[in-house]
Amino acid sequence: MPQTGGKKIIALNRKARHDYFVEESFEAGIELVGTEVKSLRKGAVNLKDSFCYIEQGEIFVHGMHISPYEQGNIFNKDPIRIRKLLMHKKEIARLFGQVKQQGYSLIPLSLYFKSSRVKLELGLCKGKKLYDKRADAAKRDAKREMSRAIKERSRG
Predict the structure, then answer these.
(1) pLDDT tens, 23-47?
(2) Domain of 76: which CATH number?
(3) Cβ neighbours of 57 (radius 10 Å)
(4) Is 138 within the bounds of a domain?
(5) Is residue 38 part of a domain?
(6) Per DSSP, which regions of the chain are E strands?
(7) Has this prediction a pTM greater than 0.85?
(8) CB neighbours of 24 closer than 8 A, spacing ≥ 6?
(9) N or C: which end of the chain has fewer CB within 10 A?
């Protein structure tokens, strides 16, 4: 992959934006082994039920499924093992304070390649209630109806 600095998205966690309000997002590196990177290049990853937690000044992602690489034989690791994220100590300390005091959650939003390195976009999120989800759906439907009406008028 060329060293251009562009992003190549591997996986998105669409459910996260549906279930949470994303207050802020951060970029973190992720500690992987070679066969996991090869699986990521094929797009064999699932972020659906994953979350992050902070323990002893380090941040980890739990529940991220990276499928085993077919040609990996003995070098393949457990697909849902806990993986360490790489961030600055100050960022981790700030996130730890917000998660503990204000009731936020750390949710992986997307996984992507950034100039041959794998990065994880991490969201500082607050949970949505059922009525919030309904309000979002109503806004989306209203927007869709307005765009349909505009298209009809421009044709008519």
Answers:
(1) 888 999 998 888 888 888 888 888 8
(2) 2.40.280.10
(3) 9
(4) no
(5) yes
(6) 7-12, 20-30, 45-46, 51-55, 58-62, 65-66, 83-86, 105-114, 117-127
(7) no
(8) 123, 124
(9) C
